[in-house]
Design brief:
single chain; alpha+beta; three-stranded antiparallel beta sheet; about 25% helix
């Protein structure tokens, strides 16, 4: 797995991917050693992870039991849908108690 260079954050207006993707994270690709930008999340959809049924369905549909390397969008989407953490905690905007 690659090292996270920058924490996941929302894509700001004017940045590449704005309006198409919701979040961006920069990770170090272990194979090449280069930084890799990973954009993920549908910009037009709300994350409705508070519903246990929706969270379970999303995680099974995206095979979050085995999310793969953190250089892929699926890994980060599954991380956003983890139980017990808010999106702000995953992005580093809110502290975990």
């Amino acid at each position: 797995m690659g090292r996270v260079v920058k924490k996941p954050r929302r894509i700001k207006k004017g940045e590449p991917g704005y309006g198409k993707k919701k979040f961006v994270v920069v990770v170090k690709n272990p194979k090449t050693g280069n930084d890799k930008t990973v954009r993920f999340g549908d910009a037009k959809m709300e994350i409705k992870r508070d519903s246990a049924k929706r969270r379970k369905n999303f995680r099974s549909r995206h095979n979050c039991a085995n999310p793969g390397p953190n250089t892929k969008a699926r890994y980060w989407s599954c991380k956003m849908w983890e139980k017990g953490k808010t999106v702000g905690q995953v992005t580093g905007r809110k502290k975990i108690k």
